[in-house]
């Protein structure tokens, strides 16, 4: 592998940028392709650049046939992350479920009585205020953000940060009435209706969930749906 390509690949991985390594199996030519399809695409046939996005979304390598020979696409994705704002009962069920599903989970709650290691064993905790916690975590294309406190002082700053990020999923707990009020506050903060449409509220798939554990299941299912059904 050319040293410049290796250096860029390592830099992308350190920066948590999804990137696919393209290798022409006939000529040995290599290059990097990205989820946005803007960088690197000009150096490869359209079919290769097009499939690079699909490979990154599916997380499965594949070979694309081209007039210049077969091109192997190998995805290098950052780890999946879930940021949960609010160390509540639902979060106690959601955090271990998400961990089992392959997410690196961080729970943000400045209320130390809620956000304690005793209540969330083996889960990364942040007792920062949500705006500070989100700024430190820097949600990216492989990050889901869920707010669960019902308290605008905690949920709203996290939602503002999430909407300004590339998070692939944003969800917020609350009734339809609560969500309508939340959206109005965010409009007043300058967000358009198109931007606000990114927020899943009330959070979770409509499966009739009642208990904290059932609600957690509905949330993780919706996060999975958002991850796996992104348009290619």
Walkthrough of the structure:
The protein contains 8 helices and 10 strands. With 232 residues, it is an alpha/beta fold. It has 2 domains: 3-76, no CATH class; 81-228, NAD(P)-binding Rossmann-like Domain (Rossmann fold, 3-Layer(aba) Sandwich). α5 (152-163) links the parallel β8 (143-147) and β9. It is elongated, with a radius of gyration of 20 Å. The relative contact order is 0.11.
The CATH architecture assignment of the largest domain turns out to be 3-Layer(aba) Sandwich
Quaternary structure type: single chain
Rg: 20 Å
Q: Assign a percent range to the helix content.
A: 25-40%
Helical stretch tally: 8
Strand order within the widest beta sheet = 7-6-5-8-9-10
Percent strand equals: 15-25%
By DSSP, the count of extended strands is 10
Tell me the span between the first and last alpha carbons: 28 Å
Uncertain runs: none
Q: In the residues, how many domains can be counted?
A: 2
Report the order of strands and helices: HEEHEEEHEEHEHEHHEH
Q: Mean pLDDT across all residues, rounded? A: 92
Shape: elongated
CATH topology of the largest domain, anyone? Answer: Rossmann fold
Task: Kindly report the name of the CATH homologous superfamily of the largest domain.
Answer: NAD(P)-binding Rossmann-like Domain
Assign the structural class, choosing from mainly alpha, mainly beta, alpha/beta, alpha+beta, or little secondary structure: alpha/beta
CATH classification class of the largest domain: Alpha Beta
| Main beta-sheet strand count, sense and barrel state | 6 strands, parallel
């Amino acid at each position: 592998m050319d040293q410049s390509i290796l250096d860029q690949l390592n830099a992308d991985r350190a920066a948590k940028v999804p990137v696919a390594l393209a290798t022409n199996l006939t000529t040995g030519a290599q290059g990097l392709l990205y989820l946005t399809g803007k960088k690197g695409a000009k150096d490869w046939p359209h079919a290769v650049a097009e499939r690079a996005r699909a490979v990154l979304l599916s997380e499965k390598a594949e070979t694309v046939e081209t007039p210049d020979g077969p091109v192997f696409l190998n995805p290098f994705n950052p780890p999946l992350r879930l940021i949960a704002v609010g160390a509540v009962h639902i979060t106690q069920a959601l955090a271990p479920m998400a961990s089992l599903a392959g997410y690196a989970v961080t729970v943000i709650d400045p209320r130390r009585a809620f956000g304690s290691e005793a209540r969330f064993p083996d889960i990364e905790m942040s007792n920062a205020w949500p705006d500070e916690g989100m700024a430190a975590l820097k949600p990216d294309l492989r990050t889901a953000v869920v707010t669960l406190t019902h308290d605008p002082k905690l949920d709203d700053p996290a939602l503002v940060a999430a909407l300004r990020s590339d998070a692939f999923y944003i969800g917020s707990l609350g009734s339809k009435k609560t969500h309508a009020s939340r959206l109005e506050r965010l409009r007043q903060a300058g967000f358009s209706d198109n931007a606000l449409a990114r927020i899943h509220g009330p959070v979770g798939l409509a499966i009739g969930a009642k208990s904290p554990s059932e609600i957690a299941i509905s949330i993780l299912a919706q996060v999975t749906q958002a991850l796996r059904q992104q348009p290619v």
